[in-house]
Amino acid sequence: MSLNVGILGHVDCGKTTLTRILAELASTDAFDKHARNSGRQNTLDLGFSTLTIDGRRLALIDCPGHSSLIKAVLAASSVLDMALVVIDAANGIQPQTAEHLLLCSIFCPNHIMIVLNKIDLVPADEIPNIKKKLSKQLKTLEVNPNCLIVPLSLNNIDPEGKKLLLESIKQSLFEPERHNTGKFLMAVDHCFAVKGKGTVMTGTVVDGSISLNQQIELPLIKESRKVKGLESWKTKAEKIMLGERAAILVQNIDSDRFSRAMICEPGVLTEIQSCLCDVNAIAFYRTTVTSGTKFHITAGFETVVAQCHFLKPTENDEYENIPSLQSDCLVLMELEHPIYSRPDTFYIASKLEHQGKGCRFAFYGKLSNISNSTSTIKRFVRKEKRGQVQRIENNQSLICQSLFKKETKISIFEGMSVILSTGEIGRIESAFGKTGKTRISFSQPLADTTIATFETNKRIEVVLYLKKYQHDKNMLCKLIRSTPSVVSLRLISRSSFLYSRGEVDDDGLPKDYKLKKLRAGSRRLDTFVNRATGKSSSQVEKLVTGGRVRLNDEVCTKKSYNVQREDVIDVWSGPFPENKELAEVERTEIVDYEVTDKGYDFTVKSWKKFIVDNWRGG
């Protein structure tokens, strides 16, 4: 069985030189032929070549070292069995070396060999210390510190050096475990036209096999074709098996429409618009991974931007929205455009636009629970409303104030349970008058100590815990909790009640807002926050990029987002002093706007100190 071997490392460390030394047969873009044509010295795309050791074929994948070309490396990583990582002895582990080693620690952690190149540039007596230091660094990167480290000078390699290199590779060979469903799937890395023949797609068979005259599907362009020609390493073939390189000839396809993608047996791949996946955090990613952040998701040979929401599974197949990535959580990914993949495909999330210092890879896992809509996933955020006891009517009934505003349609909340700060659980019986007061009844008499507390003019709080569902805006749910665990639930469908938007907001939130008029030059989020809060442009930029601004209950770091009618914008002020799980925010809700010759005139509801869940902690 063939082995797919990645040649990885920082730019100009000697990857292509190593490939030239090893390769017996050059194939697609080997030794970066485009670089030779343009006079460049650095690899810009994946290059493929091969050698055979003891009857075992090795497919060598020469990967580019530039940070801006990491997409090509991510694509190659999905088919790697082992890796040869080239490290410059004079410079050690450089930024791209670290990124490539990190990918190796995920894809092939136990099958890595280090080629320590350019040893002619360091004193010979320093090499043992360099190897020792390198082993420690590999351990830090979660790579096997006992992997082979072969010191060489590739530019001046002699027969003994090449023999050492080949023997070391031979020592590292192994039998890969491949999952074969029998259904053809191939990762296409290059596509080009051959005059008078058709279009050739080259790649690696990652499942099943491919035969001459077989019908294949090209999901990316939603077309099917028959295989007219088949080669492996420039040799004609009738059939090519799992793990092998293949060149497939088809007709009537424009090669410009189709480059790096997956092709398959018809029906194998599914169109994915959203998915709920397991998630593993990458410790080297230093920024807090907050819900609502957009990441580049690479799955197979496709990379797409997705908005990521982190969820905790609860009972009844429901999921609680949590503010940031935590252990044992899941991630709901909403893709900006569909991709074609299948369940259990490996994915990795990254910030590819980041070009500074630091790790760009945030988390990884496997695709699962695939769908074309997030509405099938029951997810919610926790809300709470607080009031206080105004009057005790008898030992099983009291009047509560400040739990609702006078505009609230209290009938929506009738029958929901509340908990007193003294511990008793009651239920909302009905409205009391027209000022937002409610009557609370209890199945068991109030404790004497509770009545005594009230009679001494001490405050007794009444708390209503709620779930606000995000998959269905017509659902509201009470949540009783005398402890952090859920005691019981009761769903209310708002569609069964008739009321206008002016009577009650979606979840009965406080109405102590001010109705304001704002004028802004555009609908950009940063411009709007500047006008709504009065903060300077630099302050607003820090707030938005630092994850301190939430849009419709989701963190939004996109300054250029154009705000819409009914958008709710929260600007984080700080933790609520009495409960660090809550936060004070400046909330602005856009009621309407008009386009004028000077920009936009907004009508908004504004709350200066609004209490929400603390999505930032601390």
Number of helices: 9
CATH domain topology of the largest domain: Rossmann fold
Strand order of the largest sheet: 2-3-4-1-5-6-7
Kindly estimate the percentage of residues that lie in beta strands according to DSSP: 35-45%
Helix-strand makeup class: mainly beta
Low-confidence blocks of residues:
36-40, 480-511
Task: Please tell me how large the radius of gyration is.
Answer: 31 Å
- Distance N terminus to C terminus? 54 Å
Task: Please summarize the sheet with the most strands.
Answer: 7 strands, mixed
Q: Please tell me the CATH architecture of the largest domain by its name.
A: 3-Layer(aba) Sandwich
Shape: elongated
CATH class of the largest domain: Alpha Beta
Please give the number of β-strands. 40
Give the mean pLDDT. Answer: 85
Helix content: 10-25%
Question: How many structurally independent domains?
Answer: 5
CATH superfamily of the largest domain: P-loop containing nucleotide triphosphate hydrolases
